[in-house]
Each structure stands twice: as C-alpha cells, then as structure tokens.
Amino acid sequence: MNDEQKLDRIDRKILSILQSNARISNQQLSEEVGLSPSSCLKRTRRLEDAGLLGPYLASINLDSLCRSVTVLATVVLKDHTKEAFIAFQKHANSIPEVLECYMVSGSFDFFLRIVAADMNSYNHINDRLLDSDVGVLKVSSHVVLNQSKSFEGFPLERLL
User: Fold this and answer.
1) For 110, phi and psi rounded to 5 degrees?
2) Which of 53, 97, 115, 150 could form an SS bridge with 47, CB 3.0 to 4.6 Å?
3) 84, 110 in Cβ contact below 8 A?
4) How far apart are alpha carbons 127 and 139 in whole angstroms?
C-alpha cells in the first residue's frame, strides 16, 4: 500500500477482525465495522490486493491430531556472504517441516521453527541441514516442552 492509500480506522478494524475470525461473513463484517456490505467487500479486496491480507489459513490443533515434536533451531553458517545466506534460505524453504525461517542478528544467523513427527524424523531433518551444500557450520536444537502462548494475531492497535 503506498503513501496515498494510508490505512484508516475502518481498514485497521477490518484487519483486526479478520485476523481473529477469517470465516466471518462479509455481512457480519460490514455490520461490525459500520459499512454497507458492498463497501466492506471493496475495502477487503483492496487490502488483499495490496498484500496486507491473506492467505487465509485454518489453525489446526496438532496435539489433538497426532504426535509431533516442535524444535526451535539456531543455525550458524560457515560463510557470511549474501550468496551463502540466499542458498541457506532456499534450502531451508525446501524442507516442508521447516515452518518458519528467520535471518537474525546476534550469535547465530538463522532461527527455524520445525515440526516433525518424532525425534527420529527431526534427526533426519537436522542431517539434511548439516549435510547440505549450503555451508552450515552448526545447528543448535531446542525441543519445545510446553507452549504457554500461541500466535493469535498481531496487536494492531499497538502497532499502527
């Protein structure tokens, strides 16, 4: 969204509502933000077209569905060149179990959130990271024992 298309109070409210309930009908959304259904739909589509909204995903309770292990891994690369960072990102993004990959500052280069079926499966993923041609020096694994808070949306009222 460019400078001419700043978010107003209604846009922020639409974003806030949709991030907590993406299945809300346009009729209900329009009532909550105080617009006609056609105006609300037009704004929602504009937010989608601007890349501020979407994709729409369902939150799955993995603990109820199956056994799994979540690992937060830190990665240090041998080389700190732009090419090495790009190569690692491509490699990490090619592994389906890597849910998130962040390039970070500090004592390591990348932070990964990985979900695997079990520790044996995670060990194979770890081996794929270490044995790749992308120059991984070190992977430190931190197994999640308990999650006390999960992502439920951005605090838009504090950020915008």
Assistant:
1) -135, 150
2) 53
3) no
4) 10
Distance (Å, whole) CA 98 – CA 125: 9
Model confidence pLDDT, tens digit, residues 27-70: 999 999 999 999 999 999 999 999 999 888 888 889 899 999 99
Of 73, 63, 67, 66, residue with least CA distance to 123: 73
Q: Are strands 98-103 and 136-143 parallel, antiparallel or unpaired?
A: unpaired
Other Cβ atoms within 10 Å of 125 Cβ, number: 21
What b-and-e string marks burial along 82-102, b requiring 16 or more CB atoms within 10 Å of the CB?
eebbebbeebbeebebbeebe
* pTM for the whole structure: 0.84
The residue among 14, 10, 37, 15 whose CA lies nearest residue 26 is: 37
Rounded Cα–Cα distance for residues 13 and 35 (Å): 11
At 154, the amino acid letter reads F
DSSP code for 3: G
Q: How far apart are the first and last CA of the chain?
A: 14
Helix (H/G/I), strand (E/B), else coil: 76? strand
CA-to-CA separations, 119 to 61, 75, 150, in angstroms, rounded: 20, 18, 22
